[in-house]
């Protein structure tokens, strides 16, 4: 297998030394890993059960999901499959592939949240299968199975696989590219080279240049750590590969250039690239160490073991190029993302498989030696971190259930109990030296927690979400009263998606005046504070029809949204201030 030092098995039924830890878990492991299809089938089953749980009963999450789903709806209505549109305006934020895939799945499964999320669901499952495949080549059948299960139940992986956004798709294509690089490190392969360029082209069609930057950062770091990157580069068949890459990505990029007369590129380069690398775009900044800190929770419980696994791999990187490959895959994207002022945790999603594979390597190494993980200081630290975070999380879930009566209390309490019990059981087994059984116990607990969270807890919290209910009620009132809708400051994309068609939005007083010239009464949604402020500053009468109470996910607190009929008021504002003294036509409505 080239320069890689791997755990090999001569047949699918042979296991590495030390697997016979005890009991039913070992028998189950042999049964699953002893047949070629059972291990990936079980990984895919676990992934899809949690990725699909509750999707049909959970509305789209503001703000990205409704933007993508609404854009797909408007593209279909317009018959324009080149330029995405949102609320009657071009949307240049991302390339086209995610929109195309959502259009396909919503055509099959329905124009609803379930259909819009299917591409991410399937991509998330595919990423887990690719992790299993890479792990099988590097660690043997059981190591790959454990790595795949870790990915399938990791909170950040499940969360992104349940969202109608681009990140799960990007991770799938980039992990596919990494799998091709692994194959090429073992020897020349035209198929692997062409698949690499195909994955890269699809990733570029999903999220643009960031896909190239992430794969380059991983490869460069792996090369610095000792992975044979130069040999792999020669095997990539650059000329033919670039043609394949261009054949996949170039047609749409040329088509959108013509269709938008360059506007797409001006926005994509000037805003999406330049601003993200120079400023904390859209208030998405973060302190150094942002990814490390949040990954501790988002990739729990496996995050507790990453330092020990990384340290062990670091010590062996010169003699184990496969470990250098995994280390570079984990560290390279992290270093690149830490250099950017715009920080969001899901940017690191394509690198989490490397973390899972390193932890699975550590598990296999420790189990094959027949010693407990607590033998080493970092192993004891990992166990301590797991139990502290696990019990703290269980306590927080129990407190949330106790403080918030209603339909969310039972699932919160159940998740708390499972987390506490699973953490204790995994810790006991790890202390006994049953390393694989301990990790599988944790995986089973998190499978249950993720399934309950997606299938019960989040749907039970639907009544606290505001924007979709506001959109539906505005649309119903508009049909009943014959009054058009205009959105002022409250312009959540979920309102537009729930309404089912584009809505008028205004950002300046002059825009509102222009609409009121033709329609003397309008329907809108405002907070109580906004209703008072608009009435005083802009000489508007606002009659509240009903109030929608809920939780503002963007602000993290409860709020009330009033559905109002607004019209001009003849008398001037009752209270003057600096805003009122400005030209009324220039007064901003959206702050």
From TrEMBL:
Main location: membrane
Stretches assigned to the Glycosyltransferase RgtA/B/C/D-like domain: 93-252
Subcellular location: Cell membrane
Membrane topology term: Multi-pass membrane protein
One MF annotation (Gene Ontology) recorded for this entry: 4-amino-4-deoxy-L-arabinose transferase activity
UniProt keywords, alphabetically: Cell membrane, Glycosyltransferase, Membrane, Transferase, Transmembrane, Transmembrane helix
EC numbers, comma separated: 2.4.2.43
GO cellular component: plasma membrane
Biological processes annotated in GO: lipopolysaccharide biosynthetic process; response to iron(III) ion
Enzyme class: transferase
Domain of life: Bacteria
Database matches in InterPro entries: LipidA_mod_glycosyltrf_83, RgtA/B/C-like
Region Disordered: start-end pairs: 567-591
Biased composition (Basic and acidic residues): 568-585
Pfam families: PMT_2
Transmembrane segments: 139-158, 164-184, 196-226, 238-259, 323-345, 381-403, 440-458
PANTHER family cross-referenced by the UniProt entry: MANNOSYLTRANSFERASE YKCB-RELATED, UNDECAPRENYL PHOSPHATE-ALPHA-4-AMINO-4-DEOXY-L-ARABINOSE ARABINOSYL TRANSFERASE
Protein name, entry field: Undecaprenyl phosphate-alpha-4-amino-4-deoxy-L-arabinose arabinosyl transferase
Organism for this UniProt entry: Aquisphaera giovannonii
Lineage: Bacteria, Pseudomonadati, Planctomycetota, Planctomycetia, Isosphaerales
């Amino acid at each position: 297998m080239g320069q890689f030092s791997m755990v090999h098995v001569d047949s699918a039924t042979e296991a590495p030394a030390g697997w016979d830890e005890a009991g039913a878990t070992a028998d189950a492991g042999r049964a699953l890993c002893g047949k070629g299809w059972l291990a990936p089938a079980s990984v895919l089953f676990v992934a899809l059960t949690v990725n699909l749980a509750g999707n049909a009963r959970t509305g789209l999450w503001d703000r990205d999901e409704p933007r993508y789903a609404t854009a797909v709806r408007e593209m279909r209505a317009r018959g324009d499959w080149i330029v995405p549109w949102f609320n009657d305006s071009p949307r240049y934020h991302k390339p086209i592939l995610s929109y195309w895939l959502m259009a396909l799945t919503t055509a099959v499964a329905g124009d609803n949240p379930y259909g819009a999320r299917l591409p991410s669901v399937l991509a998330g499952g595919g990423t887990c299968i690719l992790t299993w495949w890479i792990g099988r080549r590097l660690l043997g059948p059981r190591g790959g199975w454990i790595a795949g299960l870790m990915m399938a139940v990791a909170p950040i992986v499940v969360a992104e696989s349940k969202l109608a956004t681009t990140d799960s798709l990007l991770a799938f294509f980039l992990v596919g590219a990494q799998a091709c690089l692994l194959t090429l490190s073992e020897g020349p392969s035209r198929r692997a080279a062409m698949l690499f360029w195909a994955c890269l082209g699809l990733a570029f069609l999903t999220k643009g240049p960031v896909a190239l930057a992430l794969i380059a950062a991983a490869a460069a770091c792996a090369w610095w750590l000792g992975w044979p990157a130069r040999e792999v580069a020669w095997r990539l068949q650059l000329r033919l590969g670039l043609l394949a890459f261009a054949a996949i990505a170039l047609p749409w990029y040329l088509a959108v250039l013509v269709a938008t007369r360059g506007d797409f590129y001006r926005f994509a380069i000037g805003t999406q690239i330049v601003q993200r690398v120079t400023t904390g775009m859209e208030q998405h900044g973060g302190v150094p160490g942002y990814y490390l800190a949040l990954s501790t929770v988002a990739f729990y419980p496996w995050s507790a073991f990453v330092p020990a696994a990384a340290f062990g791999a670091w010590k062996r990187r010169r003699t184990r190029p496969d470990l250098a490959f995994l280390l570079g895959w984990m560290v390279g994207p992290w270093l690149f993302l830490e250099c950017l002022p715009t920080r969001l945790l899901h940017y690191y999603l394509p690198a989490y498989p490397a973390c899972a594979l390193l932890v699975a390597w550590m598990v296999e190494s420790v189990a094959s030696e027949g010693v407990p993980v607590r033998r080493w200081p970092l192993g004891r630290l990992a166990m301590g971190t797991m139990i502290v975070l696990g019990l703290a999380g269980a306590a927080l879930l129990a407190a949330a259930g106790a403080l918030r009566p209603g339909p969310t209390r039972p699932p919160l309490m159940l998740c708390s109990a499972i987390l506490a019990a699973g953490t204790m059981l995994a810790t006991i087994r790890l202390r006994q030296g049953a390393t694989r059984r301990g990790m599988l116990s944790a995986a089973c607990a998190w499978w249950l927690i993720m399934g309950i969270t997606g299938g019960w807890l989040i749907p039970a919290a639907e009544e606290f979400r505001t924007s979709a209910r506001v959109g539906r009620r505005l649309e119903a009132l508009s049909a009943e009263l014959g009054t058009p809708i205009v959105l002022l400051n409250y312009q959540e994309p979920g309102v537009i998606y729930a309404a089912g068609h584009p809505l008028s939005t205004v950002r300046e007083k002059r825009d509102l005046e222009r609409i009121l010239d033709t329609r003397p009464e309008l329907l809108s949604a405002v907070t109580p504070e906004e209703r008072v402020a608009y009435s005083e500053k802009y000489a508007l009468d606002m009659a509240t029809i009903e109030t929608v109470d809920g939780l503002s996910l963007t602000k993290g607190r409860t709020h009330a949204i009033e559905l109002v009929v607004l019209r001009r008021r003849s008398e001037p504002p009752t209270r003057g201030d600096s805003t009122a003294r400005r030209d009324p036509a220039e007064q901003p409505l959206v702050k």
